[in-house]
Amino acid sequence: MLFNTHLFVALGLFASALGAPVAQEGHEHLHAKRGGSGTCSFPNYDGMVAVQSSGKNAGWAMSSDQSCSYGSWCPYACQPGQLMGQWDQKVTSYSYPGSQHGGLYCDDNGNLQKSNNNKDYCYDGAGTVSAKNSAGSDVAFCQTVLPGNEDMLIPTSVGSGSTQVLAVPGTDYFASTAAHYYINPPGVSTDDACQWGDDSHAQGNWAPYVAGANQESNGDTYVKIGWNPKFTGSSLSNNKPNFGIKITCDDEGSCDGLPCSIDPSKGSVNDVTSKDSSSGAGGADFCVVTAKNGAHAKVEIFSAGGN
């Protein structure tokens, strides 16, 4: 199978396996240059979603101890299935510090500047990948903020028994990067999951699984699921997750890479069921499916051993 390196540019945890650029360790602590002492308020424009608004971020898709200060770029979250349409147009490659220049620019006078008039604040992604929840409780998909600090702050809640479209970037997105999601155990809310945590709970940046997706200009969509090396490399891995994930396609004949699944009840932690699995940074295994010609794929969550 030919892998798309763009898919893994945004997925720094796995990029090294395929020769793509790797995000710097500890990226969550890197902040863009700050200006004066004032701040810009979260605007709540069309499609925007306030993130963990009780912190200094006050709704912006930034760390809770980080404010939207004068002279800085301030990323924001959008509704499920939508992508942030604004970032520093002078930045065209995935490299620090430009990779943090997402969202609106808060200038030295406290005015928010829109840098790309050709895109809305939020716009629909490719629409070719959905999350299907076949587990017994709601599941939180937490998308990383890119361009931004790459914390998993953007919430998508997938109700039990329901399907939710995920945001899938095309080549027009920032530096042709992909969307990256942390998949949390059923029953963990987006409020609890979509923030930086620690290894006391298998959630947030310590969630068992990750997923990623992007679409090429020819209509092919690359979808990846895998183990989170933060999880597999910690004591949390002593307890197998009680849920699994797999990629399914509405038209299997248009999807390369099937089967691609993880069921911890049928193997050990870090096992992946696939004809063509790979290992990424930290030795975490993953598999990739290519949905061709605009075909639709699903990342399905199920109770371990039940499917």
UniProtKB/TrEMBL annotation:
Lineage summary: Eukaryota, Fungi, Dikarya, Ascomycota, Saccharomycotina
Protein name: BN860_13740g1_1
Alphabetized Pfam families for the sequence: SUN
Keyword Cytoplasm: no
Keyword Signal carried by entry: yes
Leader sequence segment: 1-19
Family of the protein in this entry: Belongs to the SUN family.
Keywords: Signal
UniProt cross-references to PANTHER family, sorted A to Z: SECRETED BETA-GLUCOSIDASE ADG3-RELATED
